[in-house]
Design brief:
Order of helices and strands: EHEHEE
CATH class: Alpha Beta
CATH topology: Translation Initiation Factor IF3
Oligomer: single chain
Number of domains: 1
Strand content: 35-45%
CATH superfamily: Alba-like domain
Helix content: 25-40%
Number of helices: 2
Length: about 90
């Protein structure tokens, strides 16, 4: 079985959920696994909305698996939330 590519979406507070959902849907159709990286409450809100909308586009149930990751931004360590998407087969 071939290794699945993980596409990482970096979601910002001004990301548009529908556009992100469209990109997620296209990437899943290409066989990629999806992970979203967010920092901040507004970005988290957009990421969750995008996951819900993508599930509706694909007519599939989407489950989010959250975790934390330390990332370096402007020479500062910030804690990002990583949302891995599990999409029903």
């Amino acid at each position: 079985m071939a290794q699945q590519t993980v596409e990482i979406f970096r979601i910002k507070s001004d990301s548009q959920a529908v556009r992100v959902a469209t990109s997620i849907t296209k990437s899943v159709a290409q066989g990629n696994a999806i992970s979203m990286r967010v920092i901040g409450a507004a970005a988290l809100n957009e990421a969750v909305k995008a996951a819900i909308i993508a599930g509706q586009f694909m007519n599939k149930e989407v489950t989010l698996r959250p975790s934390f990751e330390d990332v370096e931004i402007d020479e500062r360590t910030r804690t990002a939330i990583i949302l891995d998407l599990a999409i029903e087969a």
